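Sample A.
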Amino acid sequence: MNMKNSAITLVGVWLLFEEVLFTVNQIEQAVVTRLGEPVRVIKNPGLHLRVPFIETVVFFDKRLLSVELSALEITLGDKRRIMVDAFGRYVITDPLKFYQAVGSEKGVLNRLNPVVLGSLSSVLGGVDLSSLLSDARISAMNKIRDAVNLAARRFGIQVVDVRIRRTDLPPQNSEAICKRMISEREREARELRAKGFEIAQIIKSTADKENSIAISEANTKVQTYIADGEREANRIYEEAYSKDKAFFAFFCSLEAYREAFNRKNTTFVVSPKSEFFDVMKGTMH
């Protein structure tokens, strides 16, 4: 029974120490509240005491924290409208103010978002798009950071940086630009097709012309070769005729017979006394 009581006592003491003692590590700071009201701030790491069951400890991070801001449509100084997607980095410098004004790190967005977006609208409203896309953007972002930091002091935080992650055109502008780009590409395609068709016609016309010239020149050469051949044949015939007129006449008759009798289903109506049959009759001189 004594051992059982001792164990219960040890457990009770351990639970009491758990409620009384708490640890704040190197990356934390804390606000101790008593029945919901803050009573002290602890920034030094180590082991600390609290009144059990009455005091509660709320811990906050000492490190650099980030907050994702809502996208905002802004009209720039040159009247162009863009969508801005930004984020901020901050440090909790006064845990008590932070606890009273914000409550927790999850509530930072609700506090910082309108401040940052208001500063974005104010500063970027005097900047044109070309400046925003150049090195001049750094100066504009520093102005936004300083304005946000000034307003955020009442929340117990220091805004270290505000940056634009991305800028886009509003959806309606993007759609209009896409349609215009599609229209321009279609126009360019039509122009390229028309130019290609024109070049194709020129090439075809040139090829047809060159082909006609080549055929005409070839025909001329053929006719020249035929004429030369006929002249040479006539010269040979004349030379042969001058050497032996009887043989030449005999040869010409044989050629005539071959041409005539080689034709199938041919009927001749010739007088038996015709000179055509002199060779056959042996009466050719």
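Sample B, a different protein:
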Amino acid sequence: MRRFLLIISLILAPLAVFAAMVVADRSFGGPGRGYGYVVEVDLPPVDALAGLPKIEGPMDASRPLVVIDAGHGGKDPGAGTGTLKEKALTLSLALALRDELIRQGGVRVALTRSDDTYLTLDERPAIARRLGADLFISIHADSTDGDGSAMGATVFTLSDKGSSLVAERYAARENAADQINGVKITGQSDTVNAILVDLSQRETQDASAQFAGLLLRESRDVMPFKVPPLQSAAFVVLKSPDVPSVLFETGYINNASDAARLTSPTGRQAFAAALAQTIKVYFARASVQRK
């Protein structure tokens, strides 16, 4: 019996010592050990990512993200005569560009709207910022009160003062989309209002200008452009402080030639292919510059 108890004690003694060590470690150990270690993780607010559009394309967060904005929508039809409305035209062009980018691969894509949804002007660049976009393209189609002879595309970038009186007036008309009977229905944040006087945004504006120049180079052989083709104005949708942005005025919706080009499958494909090529070249250059 004594021999049996001795054997049991020899087995249990080390286990008892080990158990005492564990208890001591859990009770008196420093941070990072036992129950004294607490992991704190800062989580975004519940609604921080709510309501954002789907990102399509490669499932690789390292790939650049392009946010395509189809101008107008919902209760805001934009320009247009008869049954052809800007909101429908811009959506068809945005969808064509999305499909072409996905087909080619290499970049991720998101649309600010994929149907006839109304978005305020402030919401559009805000979507790009919340998604962490690398490029924002707002697609539009102009109209004139004249005989419909005006035609051709224009690429706008942001400036605190329009590059011409026409550009300023055009920006004022587009910015009025957030107004009902002249009464502004949405306010601009102090951050947005300060963008134009913040010198730290110069890099973003330079990148926008580089993309605009590439867009003209890659597109001028497949679509007509106005003179001058590159302009700047204080568009609300271009006021993202850290996302290179352009507004692509694709043509005049009340010009027969422009309307036929923009509404035809061939014209939409040419538009999408030219922009997709521009985007490819832009990000290739950006990648080289970062090295």
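Observation for Sample B: The first strand starts at residue 65 and ends at 70.
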